[in-house]
Amino acid sequence: MKTIRNTLFPVLAACCLAVPPAMAASPVVLSFATVASPSQLQVKALEIFKNRVEKSSHDQIKVRIYASGQLFGTKSEQEQAVELGNVDMAFIGGGTTQKQVPTFTMFQSAYLFKNYAVFRKVMDSKKVTAFYADVARKMHVLPLDAWYLGARQLNYRDVGHPIRTPADLKGVKLRMPDTPAFLDLARALGAQPTPLAFTQVYISLQTGVIDAQDNPLPTDKAMKFYEVAKNISLTHHCLEPTFPAINLNKWNSLSPAQQQDVRAAIKAAGAYMDSQTREQSAELVKFFSEHGVKIVHPDIQAFYDHAEKWYAAHPAVTKDWNTNGLYDYIKQANAAAN
Predict the structure, then answer these.
(1) CA-wise closest residue to 76 among 231, 181, 155
(2) Does the pLDDT at position 23 exceed 80?
(3) How many CA atoms within 13 Å lie on the side-chain side of 314?
(4) Can you give the pLDDT at residue 5?
C-alpha cells in the first residue's frame, strides 16, 4: 500500500497543479458605449484607458469599446443604458442625466469657466468629488472623472456676413444636441437653436438644413465639418467637460484593487485627452486656414455680456446650478484667476 501511495501522490499533485485555463477566474468585462467616432480624441483616450487597465489588472479587467453609436445610437440613449445597467460605462452629462441631476446643465452654459486652468482646478476639487457622489445617489451612475473636450467655437456656412457679435447670429440656425441646456446655450449666444443628432451634422451643413454648428476644433477636424462650413469664429464660448461614468452596481461588484486600477486608468486617459485637446486646438487654426477656412476673431466681451444678461433674465434655467455651493465655488475660482 505504501508503494501505491508513493506512486499515486506525484500523479495527483501534478493533476492538481495542471488546472485548465478555463477553470481560472474569468476576467471582468467593462463595456463602454459612445457616439464618438474612432477618429475623435474621446475614443483614442478610451484606448489608453483600455490598455492601461488591462495591463495593470494583469488582464483581469477587459474593456470593450463600442464607438460611433454601435450600442444605443444617441448620447441620451447611452446615458439611460448605463443607468439601467444595459451597458457598463458611457459618457454622461446630457439630456437623461440633466433631468435627474439638473446641476449638470451648468456645464453646457456659456462662459462658465474663465480658462482651462480654472476648469481643471474646479474639476479636480473636492466640491466636484462630492457632486459625483450626489449623482451616484440620484441615478445609480458614478462619474469617475471630467475629461476636457475643448472650447466650443462657431463653425458656419456662408450666412452673408462674418459672425463677430451676438447680433450677427440673429436668425442663424445653430445645431445643438437636443437637450435644454444646449438649446439654451444657443439662445444665450443670440442664435436660433436647431436640435439635431451629432451623426447628422455633416450632411445637414452640406444641404443647408442648418447654418452652423459648434464644437471644439479637434472635433471639427475629426468629423471634417470644415469641408462643408468654411467659417470659424473663435468665440471660446463653452469649455466643455465630458464625464466617463460607470453603472454603480458594476462599480460595487469590483474589488477595491480593481476599482483602483479603473480610476488610475481613467485618470491617465483623461490626462492624455486634456493634453491632446489643448495641443491640437492651438495648432488647428493654422490647419483650417490652410484648408480654405476663414478664421474670425469675434468680440468675445460682447458675447460674454449677452450671455450673462440672457441667463440673468431666465432664472429658471440657473436655479439648480448652485447645489452644494458648486456654482459659487466656480465664480470664486474665476475671480481668483484675474
Answers:
(1) 181
(2) no
(3) 16
(4) 45
Separation between Cα atoms, residue 288 and residue 102, nearest integer Å: 36
Q: Which amino acid is present at 233?
A: S
Q: Tell me the C-alpha to C-alpha distance, in Å, between residue 67 and each of 20, 206, 294.
A: 34, 24, 31
Nearest to 131, CA basis, from 327, 264, 317? 327
Residue 207, class by beta-carbon neighbours within 10 Å (0-12 exposed, 13-18 middle, 19+ buried)?
Answer: exposed
> For residue 268, what are the CA distances in angstroms to 66, 119, 176, 272?
20, 18, 30, 6
Burial of 268 (0-12, 13-18, 19+ CB in 10 A): middle
Q: What is the pLDDT of residues 232-264, one digit of tens each?
A: 999 999 999 999 999 999 999 999 999 999 999
C-alpha cell recorded at residue 93? 452629462
pLDDT in tens, 298-311: 999 999 999 999 99
Q: What is the 3-state secondary structure (H, E, C) of 240-279?
A: EEEEEEEEHHHHHHCCHHHHHHHHHHHHHHHHHHHHHHHH
Helix (H) or strand (E) holding 63: strand 61-66
Query: Which pTM was predicted?
Result: 0.86
Which residues make Cβ contacts (< 8 Å) with residue 237, sequence separation at least 6? 110, 111, 151, 152, 153, 154, 185, 189, 214, 303, 307
Kindly state the average pLDDT of the residues 164-183.
95
Does position 200 have pLDDT exceeding 90, yes or no? yes
- Neighbouring residues of 128: CB distance < 8 A, sequence distance ≥ 6: 122, 146, 326
- Residue 324 pLDDT: 86
**For the chain, how far is it from start to end, CA to CA, in angstroms?**
89
